[in-house]
Amino acid sequence: MRMIPSLVTALAFTASIAALPGISLAKHGGIGPVVVTKTQIEAELAPCCGAPDPLEPGAEGEAERKTKSRNGVVGDDRFKAKVEIPVPSALGIVDLATALAADVRLLLSRSDSTLYAECMLVLTEIETELEDGVWETQAEYKVDVRRMLKRGVMVPKAVHGSCVDQTGTGTGLLHGVPDVRDGDLVLVSVDGTSILNGAFAVAD
Prior knowledge:
The protein is mainly beta. The chain has helices spanning 5-18, 96-101, and strands at residues 23-26, 34-47, 60-70, 73-86, 104-109, 115-120, 122-131, 134-150, 153-160, 162-165, 173-174, 177-178, 185-190, 193-199, 201-202. The chain has one domain. Residues 1-21 have low confidence and may be disordered.
């Protein structure tokens, strides 16, 4: 069966899009396919910044940004981070009262160390678990900010905590969601003392 050139071109386009990572085709009521693109970058946060050892080696965390677009239009943009700190810790967090009072922040910088956003984390849980035969308690802090497309307008939502622009121009944030990119740096501090750091990379 002989295929006309326009049909051959359409099939080739569909095959090339389907082969790209993070991109899929969905059915649509209108003419042509809907191209859905998903991106995710993440950072593992490791103890840092002590002399000679990290001030709180038992602390850990993670951060990520996810976006979802349809035909090039962002419909869902979300940034979240979680930090876990031992209780008691060398940071002065020894009980519920001190855990609630702790000022936990996450600083976001470009790869050249230019600061562009700062996020304030809130205490979401204090959990005690049995680890290797020893009971351990962790205070968990989170920031979770999002914006979603509703009726053509991006609507912001703060699930936990908040993020503010630090560029002085307002361009570092998208309706409360930091413009996190591949290669960006992240630093976590508690009451002004740096305890964790990491770098963002495209998720596997």
